[in-house]
Design brief:
The protein has 330 residues and is α/β, with parallel strands linked by helices. Helices cover 44% and strands 13% of the residues. The protein has 2 domains: 11-199 and 300-329, Rossmann fold (3-Layer(aba) Sandwich); 205-292, formyl-coa transferase, domain 3. Helix 1 packs across helix 8, helix 7 (135-142) packs across helix 9 and helix 8 (156-179) crosses helix 9. It is elongated. 33% of the residues are buried.
Length: 330
């Protein structure tokens, strides 16, 4: 039952694709929102073909309709649909929908309370606003990739942008509840990921520079994480392994290489399973390094088929059978 969830009364029209927008609306769907994914009638969301498993994870629980927004009939249908939704989320470059005649100002004319969220790489204004880009470019611009030889193994800007958009939409819904007014939300993925880059100003201490905060190899050649950053946790760890004198070296930068060698030798004495038993008894911030497949386990999610709910959604919005048939042919 989703009726008890906080956003069960909210309907969202999602025009986004790939990761940031779909991740945003997946977060909102998890809180009960009814998400209708609007895709074009050709390829639809590129993620369907790029990675069906990730597509399923990002779009599970949503409904899909197809409209051709390049045609006047499709754009007119969008204008008719808008009053039936609380929020529209899009990830086109700035101005694309406005040039088609269905940007925020045009949609606001037919739905004054609409919350319109635009998720872009660089925001709506500035010299980079209309530049093409992807997660890698936004992380580079934000300073997150400095010092790395290649891309990071996660799409940090995409996911930070999705989180930021979901948070702003939730806040805007509360604002509209109080004022009755909709609004335009400008979400920049570069700006959203910037706080992650700012943490790197502290230097390399959290990037392997401190021996108490890094990965070590176990006896069965697996990796295990030690995150004993606070002195109380590192003291508990060193006491439990019989080397309490090591606690005094925790933040001595001249001793980190020496401390790392000692800790590596300590971790190599036990298997991953044995370290798991150890850290269940000793409160010292330890956890095994799992693969994504191990972490996800048997989770298997599927998203909607492209256009699966077109008839259902359009009929509920008052479109006749003839109108629906015509739109599906455009």
């Amino acid at each position: 039952m989703r009726s008890h969830l906080p956003l069960a009364h909210v309907r969202i029209l999602d025009l986004t694709r790939l990761l940031p927008g779909p991740f945003c609306t997946r977060l909102l769907a998890d809180q009960g929102a009814d998400i209708v994914k609007l895709e074009d009638q050709d390829a639809g969301d590129y993620l369907r073909l790029l990675n069906p498993q990730i597509f399923g994870a990002m779009n599970h629980g949503k409904r899909s309709i197809t409209l051709n927004l390049r045609q006047e009939a499709g754009r007119s249908a969008l204008m008719r649909l808008i009053p039936h939704f609380d929020v529209l989320v899009e990830s086109f470059r700035p101005g694309v929908l406005a040039r088609l005649g269905c940007g925020y100002e045009a949609l606001r004319e037919v739905h004054h309370g609409l919350i319109y969220c635009a998720v872009t790489g660089y925001g709506q204004e500035g010299e980079s606003a209309t530049r093409s880009g992807h997660d890698l470019n936004y992380m580079a611009t934000a300073g997150l990739l400095s010092g790395f030889a290649g891309p990071l193994p996660i799409q940090a800007a995409d996911f930070c942008g999705g989180y930021a958009a979901a948070f702003q939409i939730a806040a805007a819904l509360e604002g509209r509840r109080q004022s009755g007014e909709g609004c335009f939300l400008d979400v920049s993925m570069t700006a959203a990921v910037l706080p992650m880059a700012v943490t790197r100003l502290a230097g390399d201490r959290l990037e392997g520079g401190l021996a108490c905060y890094r990965l070590y190899q176990t006896a069965d050649h697996q990796k295990y994480s030690l995150g004993a950053l606070e002195p109380k946790f590192f003291a508990a760890f060193t006491q439990a392994v019989g080397r309490p004198e090591l606690a005094a070296l925790q933040f001595d930068l001249s001793k980190q290489e020496e401390l790392e060698d000692v800790l590596a030798e300590i971790f190599a004495r036990r298997s991953t399973a044995e370290w798991e038993q150890f850290f269940r008894k000793v409160d010292a911030c330890g956890a095994p390094v799992r693969t994504p497949a191990q972490a996800v386990g048997t989770l298997s999610l599927s998203g909607p088929r492209q256009g699966e709910h077109t008839v259902e959604v359009l009929a509920a919005a008052g479109f006749s059978k003839d109108e629906i048939d015509a739109l599906r042919k455009t």
